[in-house]
Amino acid sequence: MKPTVIVAIMAAAVLVAAGCIVVMTNNGDRNECDVAVTMGWEKEMVDTISGGALNTVALMDPNTSPHASYSSTGTIQYLYNADLYIMIGSGVEWEESMVLNLGSTLTTDTISCMDMLEEHETHEHEADEEESENDGHSHSSHIWVSPEHLGMIAEGITEALKERYPQMSAALDSGLADYLSELGTLEEAVEDMIRNISAGQTIFVWHNAWEPFMGYLNEIANEVYGTDAYGHENPFLNVVSAEDAGAGDSPTVGTIQFLYEHSVNDTIYVSPFDAGSQYKTFFESNGYIVKTVNATAAAFLDEMGAFISYLDDTLEEAE
């Protein structure tokens, strides 16, 4: 089977300077919105839950890197004028820099997706002390790259929106059901993929934004096969990155050698971010097919579905 490379493109840009932000003040005459969010996946979630009834603005443009992204003063004005700001709260560099720079000048009510996720997991595990002890881990900053996490966050956001807009409670519950249904469709696709492919294969990524998704695969694989065999020490799919390969800002012949030496199977998937996406021709010249998956896509659930399809179509089939 021909090797395959999945490229995840996240364009780099420049962080806004602190002085450009802190001078902003409330201004009700322009750039108003009901809800401000950091990234497109949050906007997609809020739009679905609210049925489009809330004017939601993503502060980061889609298809840009959360590790280095520019924000105009006009974009920041939305944040000051919003009724509610839903931050990710997991350590995303752009968001961390922005919020720290704003400091006490930001008076918009703010909630954190990370807090929702951790609260949900605490409640889920508090009745099982042994599971809590064995399952404890620190989250990747890319917490949204897991259907399970998205479901937990969606439930938390729905409750927060119902508190702020009680007149919309029934519609918000209906919208949440729609969003969870879309996640259910993704889970069914993951279950089918797990049944179709062999465990233990290696995915090579330029920047491992999809780490939470791989943890999700372990959980679903355990459910599908009625086992607890898959986890951090024995993942259903192995993942190595450009950082592991010592590629730095560009791939080399040594990178290709690394791919061969560390692949369990002939088919290898690479998901480069930033610099890696610039070297599509290099990978192709070494026999790889380059695919694109984007962890900052505006239609993120569709993008995750595409990633699942790539894995299902190109990894070695189960015997």
What does the model show?
- With about 325 residues, the chain is α/β, with parallel strands linked by helices.
- The protein folds into two domains: about 5-10 and about 200-315, Rossmann fold; about 20-180, Rossmann fold (3-Layer(aba) Sandwich), CATH 3.40.50.1980.
- It is about 45% helix and about 10% strand.
- The chain has helices at about 20, 40-50, 75-80, 95-100, 115-125, 130-135, 145-165, 170-195, 210-225, 240-245, 255-260, 280-285, 300-315, and strands at about 5, 35, 55-60, 85, 110, 200-205, 235-240, 290.
- The strands form three sheets. A four-stranded parallel β-sheet has the order 3-2-4-5. A two-stranded parallel ribbon has the order 1-8. It has a two-stranded parallel sheet with strand order 6-7.
- Helix 5 (about 115-125) packs across helix 7, helix 7 packs antiparallel against helix 8 and helix 8 packs across helix 9.
- The protein is globular.
- Mean pLDDT is about 80; it is low at about 5-30 and about 130-135.
Précis, in short:
With 319 residues, this protein is of the alpha/beta class. It contains 13 helices and eight strands.
Key descriptive features of the protein:
Rossmann fold, two-stranded parallel sheet
CATH superfamily of the largest domain: Nitrogenase molybdenum iron protein domain
Morphology call = globular
Q: Which range does the strand content fall in? A: 5-15%
| Average pLDDT figure | 82
Task: Give a quick account of the main beta sheet: strands, pairing sense, barrel closure.
Answer: 4 strands, parallel
Approximate helicity band: 40-55%
- Rg calc: 21 Å
- Number of helical elements: 13
> What is the name of the CATH class of the largest domain?
Alpha Beta
